[in-house]
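1st attempt posting a full record on here, be nice pls
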Amino acid sequence: MHHDSGNHRDFYRIECRAVVGFRSLGERLPEDAGPGTFFSDSPALLLSRELLQLEQEAAPIMAAIGEKDRAVASYLHVINRKIDLLSRHILAQAPDTATGEEQSISLSEGGVVFRCAQGLSVGSFVALRLLLLPAWTGVAAFGQVVKSESTAAGYSEISVAFENLQDAERQLVARHVMQIQMAEQRRRAGRT
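the predicted structure (as C-alpha coordinates):
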Protein backbone atom coordinates (compact mmCIF):
# COMPACT_ATOMS: atom_id res chain seq x y z
CA MET A 1 0.00 0.00 0.00
CA HIS A 2 1.32 3.43 -0.93
CA HIS A 3 0.17 6.72 0.54
CA ASP A 4 0.46 10.29 -0.69
CA SER A 5 0.97 13.07 1.76
CA GLY A 6 -0.48 16.28 0.48
CA ASN A 7 -2.82 18.86 1.90
CA HIS A 8 -2.39 16.99 5.22
CA ARG A 9 -4.45 14.06 3.89
CA ASP A 10 -3.43 10.54 3.02
CA PHE A 11 -4.81 8.80 -0.03
CA TYR A 12 -4.57 5.16 -0.99
CA ARG A 13 -2.51 4.80 -4.18
CA ILE A 14 -3.05 2.06 -6.76
CA GLU A 15 -1.36 0.93 -9.93
CA CYS A 16 -3.78 0.65 -12.85
CA ARG A 17 -4.07 1.04 -16.63
CA ALA A 18 -5.32 4.25 -18.24
CA VAL A 19 -5.26 6.19 -21.47
CA VAL A 20 -3.51 9.43 -20.54
CA GLY A 21 -3.79 12.75 -22.30
CA PHE A 22 -2.44 16.07 -21.07
CA ARG A 23 -1.95 19.64 -22.18
CA SER A 24 0.72 21.90 -20.68
CA LEU A 25 -0.77 25.13 -19.33
CA GLY A 26 2.29 27.00 -18.11
CA GLU A 27 2.60 28.70 -14.75
CA ARG A 28 -1.09 29.49 -14.08
CA LEU A 29 -4.42 27.71 -14.16
CA PRO A 30 -6.98 29.20 -16.53
CA GLU A 31 -9.76 31.01 -14.71
CA ASP A 32 -12.42 30.72 -17.38
CA ALA A 33 -12.16 27.14 -18.65
CA GLY A 34 -12.58 23.67 -17.21
CA PRO A 35 -10.02 20.92 -17.77
CA GLY A 36 -12.22 19.05 -20.26
CA THR A 37 -12.24 21.99 -22.68
CA PHE A 38 -8.60 21.31 -23.58
CA PHE A 39 -9.50 18.01 -25.28
CA SER A 40 -11.56 17.45 -28.41
CA ASP A 41 -13.18 14.34 -26.88
CA SER A 42 -14.79 16.46 -24.16
CA PRO A 43 -18.39 15.77 -25.36
CA ALA A 44 -17.73 12.01 -25.31
CA LEU A 45 -16.19 12.32 -21.86
CA LEU A 46 -19.18 14.28 -20.58
CA LEU A 47 -21.59 11.71 -22.03
CA SER A 48 -19.70 8.89 -20.35
CA ARG A 49 -19.71 10.64 -16.97
CA GLU A 50 -23.42 11.48 -17.21
CA LEU A 51 -24.25 7.86 -18.04
CA LEU A 52 -22.20 6.71 -15.06
CA GLN A 53 -23.98 9.19 -12.79
CA LEU A 54 -27.37 7.96 -14.04
CA GLU A 55 -26.30 4.38 -13.36
CA GLN A 56 -25.35 5.31 -9.79
CA GLU A 57 -28.67 7.13 -9.26
CA ALA A 58 -30.59 4.12 -10.58
CA ALA A 59 -28.78 1.55 -8.40
CA PRO A 60 -31.29 1.69 -5.51
CA ILE A 61 -34.20 1.42 -7.95
CA MET A 62 -32.55 -1.58 -9.64
CA ALA A 63 -32.12 -3.25 -6.24
CA ALA A 64 -35.81 -2.72 -5.45
CA ILE A 65 -36.85 -4.11 -8.84
CA GLY A 66 -34.55 -7.11 -8.28
CA GLU A 67 -36.30 -7.91 -5.01
CA LYS A 68 -39.72 -7.94 -6.73
CA ASP A 69 -38.94 -9.40 -10.16
CA ARG A 70 -35.58 -10.98 -10.95
CA ALA A 71 -36.37 -11.42 -14.65
CA VAL A 72 -37.06 -7.71 -15.15
CA ALA A 73 -33.95 -6.80 -13.14
CA SER A 74 -31.84 -9.16 -15.28
CA TYR A 75 -33.22 -7.65 -18.48
CA LEU A 76 -32.53 -4.10 -17.24
CA HIS A 77 -29.00 -5.18 -16.31
CA VAL A 78 -28.45 -6.40 -19.89
CA ILE A 79 -29.76 -3.08 -21.25
CA ASN A 80 -27.37 -1.24 -18.93
CA ARG A 81 -24.43 -3.34 -20.18
CA LYS A 82 -25.38 -2.50 -23.78
CA ILE A 83 -25.34 1.21 -22.94
CA ASP A 84 -21.95 0.78 -21.24
CA LEU A 85 -20.54 -0.90 -24.34
CA LEU A 86 -21.81 1.91 -26.57
CA SER A 87 -20.32 4.53 -24.23
CA ARG A 88 -16.95 2.76 -24.22
CA HIS A 89 -16.99 2.51 -28.01
CA ILE A 90 -17.74 6.24 -28.35
CA LEU A 91 -14.87 7.08 -25.99
CA ALA A 92 -12.49 4.70 -27.76
CA GLN A 93 -13.25 6.36 -31.11
CA ALA A 94 -12.85 9.95 -29.83
CA PRO A 95 -9.91 11.76 -31.48
CA ASP A 96 -7.96 12.47 -28.28
CA THR A 97 -8.42 8.89 -27.06
CA ALA A 98 -6.82 7.60 -30.24
CA THR A 99 -3.80 9.88 -29.70
CA GLY A 100 -3.52 9.24 -25.94
CA GLU A 101 -1.21 6.54 -24.68
CA GLU A 102 -2.46 3.53 -22.75
CA GLN A 103 -0.05 2.96 -19.90
CA SER A 104 0.32 1.87 -16.33
CA ILE A 105 -0.22 4.77 -13.92
CA SER A 106 -0.10 5.29 -10.18
CA LEU A 107 -3.36 6.92 -9.05
CA SER A 108 -4.85 8.33 -5.88
CA GLU A 109 -7.43 10.97 -5.01
CA GLY A 110 -4.49 13.32 -4.54
CA GLY A 111 -2.83 12.91 -7.92
CA VAL A 112 -1.35 10.70 -10.60
CA VAL A 113 2.04 9.51 -11.82
CA PHE A 114 2.35 8.81 -15.55
CA ARG A 115 5.02 8.71 -18.22
CA CYS A 116 5.49 10.87 -21.29
CA ALA A 117 8.10 11.47 -23.95
CA GLN A 118 9.29 14.82 -22.61
CA GLY A 119 9.78 16.20 -19.13
CA LEU A 120 7.60 18.95 -17.70
CA SER A 121 8.67 21.84 -15.50
CA VAL A 122 8.10 21.29 -11.80
CA GLY A 123 5.51 23.82 -10.63
CA SER A 124 3.85 24.12 -14.03
CA PHE A 125 0.18 23.25 -14.54
CA VAL A 126 -1.45 20.71 -16.83
CA ALA A 127 -4.94 19.77 -17.96
CA LEU A 128 -5.32 15.98 -17.67
CA ARG A 129 -7.71 13.58 -19.31
CA LEU A 130 -7.58 10.07 -17.86
CA LEU A 131 -9.61 7.18 -19.21
CA LEU A 132 -9.38 4.66 -16.39
CA LEU A 133 -9.38 1.08 -17.63
CA PRO A 134 -10.98 -1.40 -17.81
CA ALA A 135 -14.14 0.59 -17.00
CA TRP A 136 -13.33 3.45 -19.42
CA THR A 137 -14.20 5.95 -16.70
CA GLY A 138 -13.29 9.43 -17.92
CA VAL A 139 -11.75 11.98 -15.57
CA ALA A 140 -10.75 15.52 -16.54
CA ALA A 141 -8.70 17.48 -14.03
CA PHE A 142 -6.17 20.22 -13.57
CA GLY A 143 -2.93 19.40 -11.84
CA GLN A 144 0.41 20.83 -10.86
CA VAL A 145 3.63 19.01 -11.72
CA VAL A 146 5.41 18.15 -8.47
CA LYS A 147 8.09 15.89 -9.92
CA SER A 148 9.54 15.20 -13.37
CA GLU A 149 12.28 12.60 -13.71
CA SER A 150 14.02 11.19 -16.77
CA THR A 151 14.27 7.41 -16.78
CA ALA A 152 16.85 5.03 -18.23
CA ALA A 153 14.14 3.84 -20.64
CA GLY A 154 14.14 7.27 -22.32
CA TYR A 155 10.86 8.71 -21.11
CA SER A 156 9.97 11.03 -18.25
CA GLU A 157 7.98 10.01 -15.20
CA ILE A 158 5.67 12.85 -14.22
CA SER A 159 4.04 13.24 -10.79
CA VAL A 160 1.03 15.55 -10.75
CA ALA A 161 -1.00 16.74 -7.74
CA PHE A 162 -4.63 17.38 -8.62
CA GLU A 163 -5.68 21.03 -8.32
CA ASN A 164 -9.25 22.18 -7.67
CA LEU A 165 -10.58 18.66 -8.33
CA GLN A 166 -14.36 18.78 -8.59
CA ASP A 167 -16.30 16.53 -6.20
CA ALA A 168 -17.73 14.52 -9.10
CA GLU A 169 -14.23 13.87 -10.46
CA ARG A 170 -12.91 12.97 -6.99
CA GLN A 171 -15.77 10.50 -6.56
CA LEU A 172 -14.95 8.89 -9.92
CA VAL A 173 -11.30 8.50 -8.89
CA ALA A 174 -12.26 7.17 -5.44
CA ARG A 175 -14.69 4.67 -6.97
CA HIS A 176 -12.06 3.45 -9.44
CA VAL A 177 -9.46 3.10 -6.67
CA MET A 178 -11.95 1.10 -4.59
CA GLN A 179 -12.86 -1.16 -7.53
CA ILE A 180 -9.20 -1.91 -8.25
CA GLN A 181 -8.57 -2.59 -4.54
CA MET A 182 -11.51 -5.02 -4.39
CA ALA A 183 -10.37 -6.80 -7.57
CA GLU A 184 -6.87 -7.16 -6.10
CA GLN A 185 -8.29 -8.55 -2.85
CA ARG A 186 -10.40 -11.08 -4.79
CA ARG A 187 -7.34 -12.08 -6.82
CA ARG A 188 -5.28 -12.58 -3.63
CA ALA A 189 -8.11 -14.55 -1.97
CA GLY A 190 -8.26 -16.81 -5.02
CA ARG A 191 -4.54 -17.63 -4.69
CA THR A 192 -4.70 -18.70 -1.05
